[in-house]
Amino acid sequence: MDKASAKTLIRTTVIELMETTDIPDITVTAVCKRSNLSRTTFYRYYPSVDAVVKEMGDDLLASIRRTQEVDRRTTSLGGMRKTGASDLIRAQILFEYGPFIRVVTGVHGDPSFAYKAVAVIRERLQEEVRGLGLNERDQEVFIEFMLAGLFRCINYWLAEHPEITPEEAYECQLAVTRALAEMFGALKP
């Protein structure tokens, strides 16, 4: 078995085990037994189950950061960026990592992953919110509101409606963005 196939099998097996078992309780033996791989093969690629989970989380966050770099290059000055191609790419990344996101943020997952993910998203939101003309406190409240909504929406999509494609999720995002713009536009004095 080639390296890519072996790593994919190990990662998939760890995700399956995370559905019912806390990460510290998942053993290399359990992963090997379920995946029909030898311990030697496992250890060729990973020193521990924790390393598998960490690598998946790091890969996901790195992918999100890359889309944020696209956002930075395409944002016009003086306001939040417009919804665009990077949002579809981000939806595709979330969909691809959906099984991992669902279990790592679930009851058997890793609470520290959520903190890392929040930090990545918060950084980008802070950049976008600066151009809205809000005072510092209102910026903080707005960012927390957006973070809570984003994470709840992603979890809802991946856990409750995994059949929704990234393209459909992107179209939904566009519709919600338009509705919010209309709602907030109507609230202006």
Automatic annotation (TrEMBL):
Residue ranges of the annotated DNA-binding region, renumbered to this chain: 27-46
Keywords of the record? DNA-binding
Q: Which Pfam families match?
A: HTH_7, TetR_C_8
GO function term, MF aspect, one: DNA strand exchange activity
The keyword Cell division is assigned to this record: no
Q: Does the keyword DNA-binding apply?
A: yes
InterPro entries, per database record: Homeodomain-like_sf, HTH-type_Tx_Regulator, HTH_TetR, Resolvase_HTH_dom, TetR_C_Firmicutes
**In what residue span(s) does the HTH tetR-type domain sit?**
4-64
Q: Which domain of life is it from?
A: Bacteria
Q: So where does this one cross the membrane?
A: none
Q: What is this protein called?
A: TetR/AcrR family transcriptional regulator
